[in-house]
Amino acid sequence: MLIGPTLGRYLSSRFLFMILAVFFTIFSMIYVVDLIELLRRSGNRPGVTASYVAFLSFLRTPSVSEQVLPFCILFGTMATFVNLTRRLELLVARAAGISIWQLMTPPLGIALMIGLFSVAIYNPVSAMMRHRANGMETALFGHIDGQDSGGLWIRQNSPDGQAIIRAETAENGGTRLNGVNVYTYGTDGRFESRVDARHAKLLPGKWELDEVKITVPGKRVQQAPVYMLATNLGPREISENVVTPDSVPFWELPSFRATTEAAGLDATGYRLQFQVLLARPLFFIAMVLIAAAFSLRFFRFGGITKMVCGGAGAGFVLYVVSKFTSDMGNSGLLSVPVAAWSPPIVASMLGALALLNQEDG
Fold it and tell me: Does residue 261 sit within a domain?
């Protein structure tokens, strides 16, 4: 049995308002901190205006704030239930014969809608904004902040055999590499040579390396101004090695996975990210159930601090477990569906079990 439309709209608006309030508060904090850091880093850059840095920080913030969306759902739900309890609105509703499951209908619906919106719209928009921010950041600082110090690694197959390419930095979506080391292997899998180059540029069907030093086992080191390396990779495949799976828009993940697999590269990260995004609405529902399990009680004699800490701790544990299973799925220790769906499914079951115990003893 569902609650009446008037009460349903009232509760839904309260939950939606509180969740959005928490989200925009965290969004503003992330933006201010990132803006201050960018202003510090760009202070000695000539010609860089404050408005340019502010716009760059605005483009970077959505992708970061997307990671805290589960906690916005958690804290927004807990805050709403606590406010309803303090104003005795939950007490009146329970006295009128409304069960916990009827009260849970609005927040669960709101969590489902926010989850679908974040996957279908917010994730693609934040990914596009982050992509533009990366270009602006590269033009401003020469690199992307937080880029892996281990450099970029690319593995390719060609008619001449396999090659492993390592570059210190990449530009133009990976079509221009700097500080390049190439390890070439023959068609039989034996190591043939190491090629060190200052730069590498991707051309149709080949890499053009300049200022080259070639090392072949048992021979003297040779130097050449230019070296051509055959490749079966195009700009799209190269960009997929430069772009991490979590920065690819949701709707483009299937095509990224298909082209990566066609090039003979590992596409586990793209498959996992796609399944994680599909499971996000259920993950948000699990956060609502966890929040309700800790906050759907009366606090006449105190205990709010204990409740908040308990709910936040449970939500944090769920978030850490989901990241841990994702890492295991990315490394091949767990299948992709299990790594993506098991944390929200288990958490939803535990949250529902806790509510059943509160409602029915």
Answer: no
